[in-house]
Amino acid sequence: MLNIAVFGSGRGSNFSAILNAISGGSLPGTKVAVVISNNSTAGILEIARAHAIPAVHLSQKYYASEGDFADALLAGLHAYGVELVVLAGYMKHLPASVVAAYRHRIINIHPALLPEFGGQGMYGQHVHEAVLAARRTVSGATVHLVDSEYDHGAIVLQDRVPVLPGDTPALLAERVLQVEHRLLPEAIGLFAAGRLSVVDGKVRIHPEQE
Question: Which of 14, 51, 82, 92 places its Cα 20 to 30 Å from the Cα of 43?
């Protein structure tokens, strides 16, 4: 059984996609052990509680230092036996000690085709506004490993959607979100099946075992 922690700051639509994949049988051997949010009113916490999943509010503003906050995060992850951390709309930068402790075991979903349109400040509608301003004809979503920089780690999965004439940021966001909901559970499944490794800083996906 792969125990995962899902981090989020908002409504939790990607978390719902994960739960649907688990209940639908496409993520065998996977359990959401805990949900963590920096936002006490986040919808992702409400969804977790509705499914009897531990829902934890942890915000750095309640700690004297980033080190104390990192210690609290790590204590929580260890308490729930977490093996993979999934960032699903989490709007905060993880402390370096957490990233180090879970090296190559933290993934993030980003609503663009990295390495373009990533980095600090590139989240939510800002991403789609930038894509439209750049007059791109395609956009998409990326699942990547998390390292010490925003949206920088090795790419796990990526898929595209067209940017259509007359698109607004909201319309493009909705199209990209459908891809996010498919890619994130798929990436978790690769971890659960032991099909993913990192070689020379790049992700290698191994064939399914017969």
Answer: 82
